[in-house]
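Retro notes, structure queue

What went well: the backlog is down to a handful. What didn't: a couple of records were mislabeled last round, so from now on we paste the full input next to the output in the thread. Example, using FAM86 N-terminal domain-containing protein from Rousettus aegyptiacus:
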Amino acid sequence: MAREENVNSARLLRSFERRFLATRGLRSFPWQSLEEKLRDSGSELLLDILQKTVKHPLCVKHPPSVKYVRCFLSELIRKHEAVHEEPLDELYEALAEVLTAEEPTQCHRSYLLPSGDSVTLSESTAIVSHGTTGLVTWNAALYLAEWAIENPAVFTHRTVLELGSGAGFTGLAICKMCRPRAYVFSDCHSRVLKQLQGNILLNSLSLEPDATTPMQHQGHDTHNSESPRVTVALLDWDTATAPQLAAFQPDIVIAADVLYCPETILSLVGLLQRLSACQKDQRAPDAYVAFTIRNPETCQMFTTELGRVGIPWEAVPRHDQKLFPYEEHSETTILKLTLQVHTRLGRSP
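Corresponding output:
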C-alpha cells in the first residue's frame, strides 16, 4: 500500500510540475486529488509541489507570468487551509515575494522532454494586442511533437521545412529529440518571426547568419550532425515563388494548427502543389499536417481540396505518448500527405 501511495504522489507531483511549467489554466490541475491527499498526509506534499513548480530551476531561470504564479500560490494556500489549521510559512513567503514583483513584458512557459532536456518559450504578456495567433502554442503543435518524438526516424538526418512555425515549439522539440540534419522554421508575420528567433536562441540552438535566406544543402558534410542547421524564413504562402521553395529542398514538410478558414486552406494547398512541382530530380517530400478538429466542415474542405489537386492523404494512427499537457477532450489528428511531382497546378473550378 505504501508503494502505491508513493506512486500516486509521484504522479500527482508530475502532473502539477508539467502543468505549471507550461502555464496551463489552473482549472486543469488535479486539485481534487490534491485535497484528498492532503487529508491523509501532512504538509510535506505541498512543500514538494512548491519545489516542483514555483521554485523549479526552470521557473527561477525563466519565470512565468507574475499574475499566474500569484493565482497558483493563492489556490495552493486555499487548499492547504481547507484541510490543515496550521499555516505553512513557505507558501506565504513565496506569495509575499510574488506580490511585490512587477509583471515583466515577457514571460515563459516550459515543456519537459523525455531526454531530461526541456523546451522553453518566451511569450509577450500583452499577447492579445499583437493581432496574431502565431505567438501561442496550440494543442496540435504539442500533439505533433509527441508523435515526432515517438517516430524519430521520420526526421533523423533529414531536412525539415515547417510551415507556420508560430512560437516554434514543435520544431524545437524535433531539433532536440529527433536529430534532423537541418530544420527550416517559417512564418509570414514579422512579429512572430522575431519571437521565433528569440525562442530558438533561448533553447541553445544556433541560427544561420542570415536567418531569412533559404538554406542550401552545401556544407552538410562539415556540419555537426548532432546539432541541426537551423534557419528562419519569411514565407508567405500566396506569394512564395518556385525558386524560393526549391531552395529549401525539404525531405519532410510539417505544419500544425494552420487550418483556420477557407482562405488559409486554399493558400496551403496551393503552396503544397508548388512544393511538389519544384522537386524535379528528387523524390517529393512527405508532408504531415496536424490540426485540432474544431469545425468538421473545415477539415472536410481541406481533404476535398487535396483530392481535387491530386495529393493523396491518409490519417496517421493515434500515438500512445502523452508527454505534454494540453486539452485532452479536444480531438486532434495528423494527416500524412504524399506530395507528387504530377499534382495539377492551379485552382480549377
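Agreed that this is the format going forward. Reviewer comment attached to the example: Residues 2-21 form the longest helix (20 residues).
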